[in-house]
Amino acid sequence: MSSAKNKFPAKGDCLWLNVNLATMAGGNPYGMVKDGVLVVGGSKIAWLGKRADLPEDFKSRIEKTYDGQGGWITPGLVDCHTHLVYAGSRAREFELRLEGATYEEIARQGGGIRSTVSDTRQADEQSLFAQSAPRLQALIQEGVTTVEIKSGYGLDLETELRMLHVARQLGEKYPVTVVPTYLGAHALPPEFEGRSDEYIDLVCNSVMPEVAAQKMAVAVDAFCENIGFTPDQTEKVFQKAQKLGLAIKLHAEQLSDLKGAKLASGYGALSADHLEHVSEEGVKAMAASGTIAVLLPGAFYFLRETRLPPIDLLRRHKVPIALSTDCNPGSSPTTSLLLMLNMACTLFRMTPEEALAGITRNGARALGLEERIGTLEAGKDADFVLWDISEPAELAYRIGFNPLKQVIRHGKLISYSYVSV
Ligand SMILES: [Zn+2]
Fold it and tell me: What is the pTM of this model?
């Protein structure tokens, strides 16, 4: 890609030719269109389909044509669950775990999340941005055009707002759509030791209203777990979020079954995430409320979990499955969504098509953005990726390989400085 190619004409349509399309919009596996054409008008997909069916009036409007050289176009990738804004490193904790300590032991000893809280509280906005940007850039280099970013390492008003502000700035400085989530109920801050109900009061009565008033987040999340917050405390968070008009998500059933998925579904949650220990009752509740299952194979792998999320139950009850990096310093220090595709297939036995749907169509649904992104359809945002692959399964099949050729977001080719493969 030369820099001269990075600017589209202000008017007129652009066309991708000699491409195969994995629209992920149904109809057949991958929503596949062989020898296809994709036309972009402004920031939207104007038309797509078989080359032979391209309408005459489109042909006359085309101002620029790209030859895809037989590659595949997929929707822009959606990473729907990340904690990528944080300061510091947890490499030492990684070492400790290898010396025998468990995740729960480290958390109970005040390590784990709390050490990141301490580092993040001490980092000013500039430092937090500088430490987080390379993680975002790594995602973009693999075709991510939409990323959710959670707060939750500040746990006080000032630092939570700072994290969300950095998330917003990242979305302004980089060619990616950032969806911010307030995760106040992530861990108990040290100054509230033994007073978790009081901390939840702070989340609900002080921080969340301010986050909502400043429009710093579109959703609220919580960590419902024995080492996190109880279902009753989680429900208080949901009730307040509902009053403030914020969408709901939940870290549920990662380490035990506290019936968090059912609780979240009762509040119409967009997603319940992790779910290794979810019961059939929880899955049924998710199906009834249209709540998306977000599976996080990176955390499963890194924590060396053995209890698999119930893929067959999710399939049987037709709960859509999304996949995400869960990019975070403690349990999933990855910035590769392509690697998550492979892990979902090898560890969870998902099919490559299910896995790709998990980081496109269903990732979009987990963020409530399915009207705009997640599939290749006329009228949707022109967010898509051109890959140098011979079939879609290659994206999940290969390990540690990035066949990306182009990323297009809102109709614009992302400049070479953000994409180098
Ligand atoms: Zn998470």
Answer: 0.95
